C-alpha cells in the first residue's frame, strides 16, 4: 500500500510539474521546480512535504511558487490540505548570498511577489505594512522610461487623494516588467494619502484558494463582506482566474459593489483583458472599462538606467562601463534576468576575488546570454556594416589597409564579438583568416573610439539598432 501511494504521488507530481513547465517556461522550471523532491504525505493532517537542496532555494520557492504549488496539489488530490516547502533533511545548509535586492524595479526577483491575501493600514503609531505589501516596492524605487511611463503615471494618479478619472486600472505587462511593483507602490502611496484606508492585496490564485475555502466552510457571507469592506482592491496575475466560473462571478459582483461606492480597483496580468480566454464577457467588460495601461519590454536606455541604479548597492565594487553596456544590450528579454545576471556576476567576482570584466561576464552568464541573444550571424553583421559604410562585401576578408576599408572591418569585428557567442579566433577566420590578436585589437579600438568620438558611437548605435530589430 505504501509503495502504491508513493507511485500515485509521483504520478501526480509528474503531471503537476509538466503543467508548471508550460506555465513558467523551461528556464524557471529547470531552476526552481525541477529540483523539488517529493517528501512524505500525512493523511491525518493532509500535509504534503516538498524538499529542496538548500535553504535559499526553499525560501525562494516558498515566496514565489507556494500558492501555485498548493493550488495544483489541491486540484490533483482533494486530501492535500497543506503543502510545506523545506530544506531536504540531512542536506548541508549552504551559506546564501543576500541578493534579494530586486529586479530592475526594486522588487524581489520573481513576478509572483509575496504570497498571501493581506490587509494593510496605518495605525495610531504610524505605518505598519502587512506581508502583502513589500516595503521596498515604492514609486521612488521604480525606474521609469518611455516604455513604462504611462503605467507609472496612471498608477501614481490612482494613489492620489483626488478621485481618479478611471477605475479600474488594468496593468498589462509580460513577466518581469514591473507591474507587480506598481501594485505594491499604489498600496503604499494610497496609505500615505489615506491614513485610515483599508487595502486588500492578493494574487488571483490566492483569491481562488480563499474563495474555495470559504465555500467548503460555509463562510461565503463573511468572505463577501470582508472583500467589500476595502477601499482599495489590488489583484495580481488575474489571468489565473481563467475558467473558474463561480470565482469569476464573485469577483464581478465585488467589482460592481466597490465601484458603486467609489472605491478603487487595480488589476495586473500578463495579457490584455480581451486576450483572457475562458473569462465571461461581463467580467471582461468590467476589467477593461477603466484604463488599460500597457508596459512594454524595457528598451536599451531603460535597461542601462536600471543597471546603473543597482550599482549603488555594490559600492565600492567597480563595474566597468563596457560590462554594463554588454549586459544591457545582450539581456533584453526580461528585466528580472537582467538584474539577476548583474547579481550573479558580482556575487561570483566577490566570492572568487576576481575583478568584474567583460570576459568574466561572458564566462559566467552563458545560460542567460544564450537565452537572450537573437541569433545574429557574422555574415549578417558583415552585410549590414558594408551597406552602412557603402563598401564591397569582399573588403571584409581583403588585405587592403586603406582607412575607408579598415574602419568598417574593425566595426564589424567589434559587433561580431558583442552580438555573437563566437570566440576571437572564430571571428578572425570569418574575416579572411585573421589572427585572434587582430580581432582583440579591433574590439578594444572601437570601444575606445566610442568613448572619445561621438560620430563613431552614433554609427555603432545605429548599426546595433538595425541588427537587433
UniProtKB/TrEMBL annotation:
One GO cellular component term: plasma membrane
Domain Chromosomal replication initiator DnaA C-terminal positions: 377-446
Metal-binding keyword on record: no
UniProt record similarity statement: Belongs to the DnaA family.
Written domain comment of the UniProt record: Domain I is involved in oligomerization and binding regulators, domain II is flexibile and of varying length in different bacteria, domain III forms the AAA+ region, while domain IV binds dsDNA.
Quaternary structure note: Oligomerizes as a right-handed, spiral filament on DNA at oriC.
Biological process annotations from GO: DNA replication initiation; regulation of DNA replication
Record-linked Pfam families: Bac_DnaA (PF00308), Bac_DnaA_C (PF08299), DnaA_N (PF11638)
Cell compartments where the protein resides: Cytoplasm
Stretches the record annotates as Domain IV, binds dsDNA: 350-469
Residue numbers spanned by region Domain I, interacts with DnaA modulators: 1-115
Name of the coding gene: dnaA
Boundaries of every AAA+ ATPase domain copy: 165-293
Its job: Plays an essential role in the initiation and regulation of chromosomal replication. ATP-DnaA binds to the origin of replication (oriC) to initiate formation of the DNA replication initiation complex once per cell cycle. Binds the DnaA box (a 9 base pair repeat at the origin) and separates the double-stranded (ds)DNA. Forms a right-handed helical filament on oriC DNA; dsDNA binds to the exterior of the filament while single-stranded (ss)DNA is stabiized in the filament's interior.
SUPFAM superfamilies assigned to the protein according to its UniProt record, in alphabetical order: P-loop containing nucleoside triphosphate hydrolases (SSF52540), TrpR-like (SSF48295)
PROSITE patterns named in the record: DNAA
Binding residues annotated for ATP, in chain numbering: 176, 178-180
Keyword DNA-binding: yes
Listed name of the protein: Chromosomal replication initiator protein DnaA
GO molecular function terms listed in the Swiss-Prot or TrEMBL record: ATP binding; DNA replication origin binding; lipid binding
Alphabetized UniProt keyword annotations: ATP-binding, Cytoplasm, DNA replication, DNA-binding, Lipid-binding, Nucleotide-binding
Coiled coil: none
Amino acid at each position: 500500500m505504501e509503495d502504491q501511494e508513493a507511485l500515485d504521488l509521483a504520478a501526480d507530481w509528474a503531471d503537476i510539474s509538466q503543467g508548471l513547465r508550460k506555465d513558467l517556461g523551461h528556464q524557471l522550471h529547470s531552476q526552481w521546480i525541477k529540483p523539488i523532491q517529493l517528501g512524505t504525505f500525512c493523511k491525518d493532517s493532509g500535509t504534503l512535504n516538498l524538499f529542496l537542496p538548500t535553504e535559499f532555494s526553499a525560501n525562494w520557492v516558498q515566496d514565489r511558487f507556494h500558492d501555485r504549488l498548493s493550488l495544483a496539489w489541491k486540484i490533483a488530490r482533494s486530501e492535500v490540505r497543506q503543502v510545506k516547502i523545506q530544506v531536504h533533511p540531512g542536506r548541508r545548509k549552504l551559506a546564501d548570498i543576500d541578493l534579494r535586492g530586486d529586479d530592475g524595479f526594486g522588487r524581489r526577483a520573481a513576478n509572483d511577489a509575496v504570497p498571501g491575501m493581506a490587509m494593510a493600514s496605518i495605525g495610531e503609531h504610524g505605518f505598519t505594512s502587512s506581508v502583502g505589501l513589500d516595503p521596498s516596492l515604492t514609486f521612488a524605487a521604480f525606474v521609469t522610461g518611455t516604455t513604462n511611463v504611462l503605467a507609472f503615471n496612471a498608477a501614481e494618479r490612482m494613489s492620489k487623494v483626488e478621485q481618479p478619472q478611471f477605475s479600474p486600472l488594468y496593468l498589462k505587462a509580460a513577466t518581469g516588467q514591473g507591474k507587480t511593483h506598481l501594485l505594491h507602490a499604489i498600496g503604499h502611496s494610497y496609505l500615505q494619502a489615506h491614513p485610515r484606508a483599508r487595502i486588500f492585496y492578493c494574487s488571483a490564485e490566492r483569491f481562488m484558494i480563499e474563495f474555495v475555502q470559504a465555500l467548503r466552510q460555509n463562510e461565503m457571507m463573511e468572505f463577501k463582506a470582508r472583500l467589500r469592506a476595502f477601499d482599495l482592491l489590488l489583484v495580481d496575475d488575474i489571468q489565473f482566474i481563467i475558467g473558474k466560473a463561480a470565482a469569476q462571478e464573485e469577483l464581478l459582483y465585488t467589482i460592481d459593489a466597490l465601484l458603486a461606492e467609489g472605491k478603487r480597483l487595480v488589476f495586473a496580468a500578463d495579457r490584455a483583458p480581451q486576450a483572457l480566454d475562458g473569462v465571461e464577457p461581463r467580467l471582461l467588460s468590467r476589467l477593461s472599462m477603466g484604463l488599460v495601461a500597457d508596459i512594454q519590454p524595457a528598451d536599451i536606455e531603460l535597461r542601462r538606467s536600471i543597471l546603473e541604479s543597482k550599482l549603488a548597492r555594490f559600492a565600492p565594487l567597480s563595474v566597468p562601463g563596457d560590462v554594463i553596456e554588454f549586459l544591457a544590450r545582450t539581456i533584453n528579454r526580461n528585466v528580472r534576468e537582467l538584474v539577476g545576471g548583474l547579481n550573479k556576476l558580482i556575487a561570483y567576482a566577490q566570492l572568487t576575488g576576481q575583478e568584474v570584466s567583460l570576459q568574466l561576464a561572458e564566462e559566467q552568464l552563458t545560460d542567460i546570454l544564450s537565452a537572450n541573444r537573437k541569433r545574429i550571424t557574422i555574415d549578417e553583421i558583415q552585410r549590414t556594416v558594408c551597406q552602412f559604410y557603402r563598401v564591397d562585401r569582399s573588403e571584409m576578408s581583403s588585405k587592403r589597409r586603406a582607412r575607408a576599408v579598415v574602419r568598417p572591418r574593425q566595426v564589424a569585428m567589434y559587433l561580431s564579438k558583442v552580438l555573437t557567442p563566437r570566440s576571437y579566433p572564430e571571428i578572425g577566420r570569418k574575416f579572411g583568416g585573421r589572427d585572434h590578436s587582430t580581432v582583440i585589437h579591433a574590439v578594444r579600438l572601437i570601444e575606445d573610439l566610442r568613448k572619445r568620438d561621438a560620430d563613431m558611437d552614433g554609427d555603432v548605435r545605429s548599426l546595433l539598432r538595425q541588427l537587433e530589430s
